[in-house]
C-alpha cells in the first residue's frame, strides 16, 4: 500500500502509446457502470472502495514522464468517492499534475468506475470494479460472504506485465507495422463534432437469451453478430460513391483467454475485421460470412501469439528505446493519425460477467463505455441483461440509430438510455 516507500511501475507494452495518443475527445478513459436496484449510499461506497484498493494497490498511481518513457508511481493520495459531477469520460491524466488515474462516482442507482487506459484494460478493471461492488453490497446489506471473487493472485501477480512474460521474438519491422498500420484507407464515420469535446453515450439493453437465439438461427456467435450489425449500420450511412472503401472494425481480444495470468493491467491484442462495403447486398448474411471467416483466421493460435507480441516491439526496438520521450510523443502521434484513417470503428466484447449468487438480486446490469475520436461500442452481459454501450464524438447519432433499429427489426425489445438530449 502507499506509504513512505512508494512503488513505481513501468508501463506495460500496450500502455506505452496511450499518453501520446490522447487527443481531443479521446481522453483514453473508459467507464464501467453497475446499475443497482436501489439508490447508492456514498459513505458505504467509500468504505467499499477503500477495501478494494487494499487488494489492488497498483490502481492508486499517477503518471510521470521519464527521459525515454512514461511510468507510474504509487500515490499516497486517497481516492475519494463523489456524486457524479463531471461529463462522462473526462480526462484523468493532466500533464504535470499528480492526479490519480481512476475515479469512482455515483448517480442515483448507478456506480461508475472510470480508468485511464495506462493502468488497465476493460477485463482487468472489471475485476477491480466487481470487487468494489461486492464490498459495497456486503456492507450495505450486512451479508456474510467471501468477496474476494475469482482472482486469488498476489499483489505482485495482479500488477505483473504479462506481455513481458509471454513475449516471443519476431521481426521488429513486422510488429511495428501491425501497430501502426500500412493498410488502405477505410470508410470514416463523419458528422459535426461536439464543440465542447464531450462524448455522447447511448446504452441499449436487450435479453441475452433472445439475442443468442438470433445468433444461433444465423449459425454464428454473439461477437460475430454484433460486429456484422455494426458494419451494416455504418454501410447504411455511406453514399454509393463511398462504398469503394472497406468498413474496418477493430476488435480487442482479451489475451487472458489464451495465456494464464492473474494480471489486472493491460493484456489484450487487437484483430481487424475488414468488409468491402460494395459486397453488401442488403442482407446481414452477406456480411456474416466474411466476418465469420476473418474471426476464425485471426483467432488461430499463431495469430494470437503474433497479436500478443506486437506491443512488445516498441520496448524492444533499439531506435525507439534511445529516442527522447518528447520525440517519441511526436512520432507516435503522427503514426496514430495515419492509423486512424485505416479504421472505421471499434467493437469490444467484454463478455459475460459473474457475481456471487447472494449479490445478484441487488444488481440490474453492468455496462461499459470508451472515449473515442469517432464512435465505438462495448458489449457486456450479466445474467439475462445484454448491454451495448455506444460512444460518439458527434452531435448526430445516425449509426447508433441504425444499429438499434436493426435490433428491433430482428424482434428484440430494446431499452434505451442516454446522456444526450436528442436521438434523432
Description of the structure:
With 424 residues, this protein is an alpha+beta fold. The chain folds into two domains: 8-165, Chloramphenicol acetyltransferase-like domain (Chloramphenicol Acetyltransferase), CATH 3.30.559.10; 168-418, Chloramphenicol Acetyltransferase, CATH 3.30.559.30. It has 14 helices and 15 strands. A seven-stranded mixed sheet has the order 10-9-11-13-14-8-15. Strands 5-6-7-2-12 form a five-stranded mixed sheet, with helices on one face. A three-stranded antiparallel sheet has the order 1-4-3, with no helix packed on it. Strand 3 and strand 4 form a beta hairpin. The protein is globular, with a radius of gyration of 21 Å. The termini are far apart.
As a percent range, the share of strand residues is 15-25%
Low-confidence stretches: 1-5
What is the SS-derived class?
alpha+beta
CATH superfamily of the largest domain: Nonribosomal peptide synthetase, condensation domain
Q: Indicate the CATH class of the largest domain.
A: Alpha Beta
Number of domains: 2
- Taking the alpha carbons of the first and last residues, their distance comes to 49 Å
Helix content: 25-40%
Count of distinct strands: 15
What composes the largest sheet? 7 strands, mixed
Choose one word for the global shape: globular
CATH fold naming of the largest domain? Chloramphenicol Acetyltransferase
**Total helix count?**
14
Average pLDDT, all residues: 90
Please list the strands of the largest sheet in the order they lie side by side.
10-9-11-13-14-8-15
What CATH architecture of the largest domain do you see? 2-Layer Sandwich
Q: Please give the radius of gyration in angstroms.
A: 21 Å
Helix and strand sequence: EHEHEEEEEHHHHEHHEEHHHHHEEEEHE
Amino acid at each position: 500500500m502507499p506509504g513512505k516507500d512508494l512503488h513505481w511501475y513501468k508501463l506495460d507494452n500496450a500502455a506505452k502509446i496511450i499518453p501520446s495518443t490522447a487527443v481531443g475527445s479521446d481522453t483514453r478513459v473508459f467507464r464501467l457502470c453497475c446499475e443497482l436496484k436501489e439508490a447508492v449510499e456514498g459513505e458505504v461506497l467509500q468504505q467499499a472502495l477503500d477495501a478494494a484498493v487494499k487488494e489492488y494497490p497498483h490502481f492508486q498511481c499517477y503518471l510521470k514522464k521519464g527521459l525515454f518513457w512514461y511510468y507510474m508511481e504509487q500515490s499516497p493520495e486517497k481516492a475519494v468517492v463523489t456524486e457524479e459531477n463531471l461529463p462522462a469520460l473526462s480526462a484523468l491524466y493532466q500533464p504535470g499534475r499528480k492526479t490519480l488515474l481512476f475515479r469512482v462516482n455515483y448517480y442515483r442507482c448507478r456506480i461508475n468506475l472510470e480508468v485511464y487506459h495506462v493502468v488497465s484494460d476493460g477485463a482487468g478493471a472489471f475485476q477491480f470494479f466487481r470487487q468494489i461492488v461486492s464490498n459495497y453490497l456486503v456492507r450495505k446489506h450486512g451479508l456474510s460472504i467471501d468477496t474476494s471473487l475469482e482472482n486469488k493472485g498476489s499483489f505482485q501477480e495482479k500488477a505483473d506485465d504479462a506481455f513481458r512474460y509471454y513475449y516471443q521474438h519476431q521481426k521488429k519491422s513486422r510488429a511495428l507495422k501491425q501497430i501502426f498500420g500500412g493498410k488502405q484507407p477505410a470508410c470514416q464515420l463523419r458528422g459535426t463534432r461536439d464543440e465542447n469535446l464531450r462524448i455522447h453515450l447511448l446504452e441499449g439493453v436487450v435479453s441475452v437469451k433472445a439475442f443468442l437465439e438470433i445468433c444461433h438461427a444465423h449459425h454464428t456467435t454473439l461477437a460475430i453478430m454484433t460486429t456484422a450489425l455494426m458494419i451494416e449500420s455504418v454501410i447504411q450511412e455511406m453514399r454509393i460513391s463511398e462504398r469503394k472503401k472497406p468498413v474496418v472494425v477493430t476488435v480487442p481480444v482479451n489475451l487472458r483467454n489464451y495465456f494464464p495470468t492473474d494480471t489486472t493491467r493491460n493484456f489484450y491484442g487487437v484483430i481487424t475485421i475488414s468488409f468491402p462495403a460494395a459486397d453488401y447486398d442488403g442482407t446481414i448474411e452477406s456480411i456474416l460470412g466474411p466476418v465469420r471467416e476473418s474471426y476464425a483466421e485471426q483467432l488461430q493460435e499463431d495469430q494470437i501469439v503474433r497479436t500478443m507480441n506486437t506491443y512488445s516491439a516498441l520496448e524492444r526496438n533499439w531506435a525507439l528505446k534511445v529516442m527522447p520521450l518528447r520525440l517519441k510523443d511526436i512520432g507516435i502521434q503522427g503514426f496514430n493519425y495515419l492509423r486512424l484513417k485505416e479504421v472505421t470503428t471499434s467493437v469490444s466484447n467484454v463478455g459475460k460477467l459473474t457475481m456471487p449468487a447472494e449479490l445478484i438480486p441487488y444488481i440490474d446490469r453492468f455496462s461499459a463505455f470508451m472515449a473515442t475520436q469517432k464512435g465505438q461500442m462495448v458489449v457486456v452481459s450479466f445474467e439475462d441483461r445484454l448491454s451495448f454501450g455506444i460512444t460518439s464524438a458527434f452531435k448526430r447519432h445516425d449509426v447508433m440509430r441504425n444499429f438499434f433499429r436493426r435490433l428491433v427489426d430482428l424482434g428484440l425489445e430494446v431499452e434505451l438510455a442516454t446522456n444526450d438530449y436528442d436521438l434523432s
